[in-house]
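Quick illustration, no need to memorize.
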Amino acid sequence: MSPRVVLVGPMGVGKSTVGQLLAGRLGVGYRDTDDDIVAAQGRSVAEIFVDEGESAFRAIEKAAVLRALAEHNGVLALGGGAILDEDTRVALAGLPVVYLSMDVEEAVKRTGLNTARPLLAVNPRKQWRELMEARRHLYEQVATAVVATDGRSPEEVTEVALDALELKQA
């Protein structure tokens, strides 16, 4: 068993919204590894970052991603930093992975780049740019298709993703 589609991309790009739309269009279930982590840990991702640090969170995230990849056959959305882990990138090889991209101005509009995002707490615009510089090539490395979300509605992004993957709709 493996997911029908895996969504990757930065925080706030719309993975959850597009993932649910894709799942509906494909007639399959939707799962988000951040939701899995929150349910298993009984606290938010931000709280895990604050209480235990990023490296502890990444270990929890890696386990959640690998479990979801093995168990879920629908649409799966990964947290923004999940692709930092090499084992996760290897596990994604050969799967239909869509990288949802956006530029910094779109990120500002969507997330406000506020302090509720633990990796963006000090200088949000600068930190977002640095995160994307560090991660963009990893998103592209695992992606079967890249879909720009800038200026597009979630429905438009869903259509482009379906077309890019040449998936049959339910």
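The chain has one domain: 5-165.
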